[in-house]
């Protein structure tokens, strides 16, 4: 009897360990941001004169999280050889052999299938947005553009904005100007966010022969492109704040944008890897803060 309990205990421990591996494999910090985008989009669409449709909104947030997790699994399969070469990514489950490519593909398609099933329940427009986002992320960006052009992140940026519009569409159609603008803020945020990390990891990308912008372009050209993206992001934020946020919330959003602009200016003076990582972390916090601000003021 003791032996049987021991086997069962070991099985539970193994199952728990595998669950943790797959949980981390989905990159919860990434899909959590996408889920937050979806909730912010839904709250932005909220009308004071109508009952808020919490069930469709929760369903949409779940569909977004599942789509992001599934896309992450599939793109990790595509990137596994590249990840094995890079210091930043060589300990991921696929390079280490903790998860096999076949298991990752099955897991990815199960997540994507569950997401699209929920999307179909939500309606044609949310489903269409989910499909477009998946195609943009997995096929256009990861399979086609990432290894061929330094502009890859611009081609894949649309996938990052899609959750806002999914969330908005389950509450109200057509999508309002403020709804489109919040998506544009995220769209402009993507290159600022990714390129700052790519700069910090440019030696890794060069080693893996991935033509990211800071690897292919001269430092001066890259800097100009990054600052152009930063200006677009800040301009989009201020336009959104003026259109959708009240005076106090707008001032908070504009103040956060000013902090990001200040750090960006410092990076021009001190273009170090340490400062690039600081900019990356600050830009991440900036978007999360803006999304939370939208959610709080619309409660």
Structural class comes to mainly alpha
Q: In one word, what is the shape?
A: globular
Q: What's the name of the CATH homologous superfamily of the largest domain?
A: UbiA prenyltransferase
CATH topology of the largest domain: Tetracycline Repressor, domain 2
Number of helices: 14
Average pLDDT rating: 87
Strand fraction equals under 5%
Radius of gyration: 20 Å
Low-confidence stretches: 1-7
Work out the count of structural domains: 2
Query: SSE order, as H and E?
Result: HHHHHHHHHHHHHH
CATH architecture of the largest domain, please? Orthogonal Bundle
3D architecture notes:
- This protein is mainly alpha-helical and 299 residues long.
- The chain folds into two domains: 1-175, UbiA prenyltransferase (Tetracycline Repressor, domain 2); 177-299, Up-down Bundle (Four Helix Bundle (Hemerythrin (Met), subunit A)), CATH 1.20.120.
- Helix content is 82%, strand content 0%.
- The protein has 14 helices and no strands.
- The protein has helices at residues 2-25, 28-44, 54-78, 80-85, 93-96, 101-122, 124-145, 152-169, 177-200, 202-207, 213-216, 219-244, 247-269, 273-297.
- It starts with a helix and ends with a helix.
- Mean pLDDT is 87; it is low at 1-7.
């Amino acid at each position: 009897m003791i032996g049987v309990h021991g086997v069962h205990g070991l099985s539970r421990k193994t199952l728990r360990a595998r669950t943790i591996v797959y949980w981390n494999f989905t990159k919860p910090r990434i899909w959590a941001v996408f889920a937050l985008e979806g909730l912010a989009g839904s709250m932005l669409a909220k009308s004071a004169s109508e009952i808020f449709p919490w069930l469709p909104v929760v369903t949409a947030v779940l569909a977004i999280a599942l789509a992001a997790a599934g896309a992450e699994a599939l793109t990790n399969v595509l990137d596994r050889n590249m990840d094995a070469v890079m210091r930043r990514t060589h300990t991921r489950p696929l390079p280490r052999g903790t998860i096999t490519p076949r298991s990752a593909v099955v897991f990815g398609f199960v997540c994507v299938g569950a997401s699209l099933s929920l999307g179909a329940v939500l309606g044609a427009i949310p489903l269409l947005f989910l499909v477009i986002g998946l195609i943009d992320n997995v096929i256009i960006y990861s399979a086609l553009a990432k290894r061929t052009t330094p502009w890859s992140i611009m081609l894949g940026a649309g996938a990052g904005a899609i959750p806002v519009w999914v969330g908005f569409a389950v509450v109200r159609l057509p999508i309002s100007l403020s709804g489109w603008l919040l998506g544009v803020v995220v769209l402009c945020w993507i290159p600022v966010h990714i390129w700052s990390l790519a700069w910090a990891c440019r030696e890794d990308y060069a080693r893996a022969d991935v033509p990211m912008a800071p690897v292919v372009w001269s430092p001066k050209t890259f800097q100009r492109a990054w600052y152009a993206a930063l200006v677009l992001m800040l301009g989009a934020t201020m336009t959104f704040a003026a259109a959708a946020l009240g005076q106090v919330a707008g001032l908070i959003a504009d103040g956060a944008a000013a902090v990001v602009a200040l750090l960006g200016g410092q990076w021009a003076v001190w273009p170090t890897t340490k400062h690039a990582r600081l900019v990356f972390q600050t830009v991440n916090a900036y978007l999360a803060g803006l999304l939370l601000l939208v959610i709080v003021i619309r409660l």
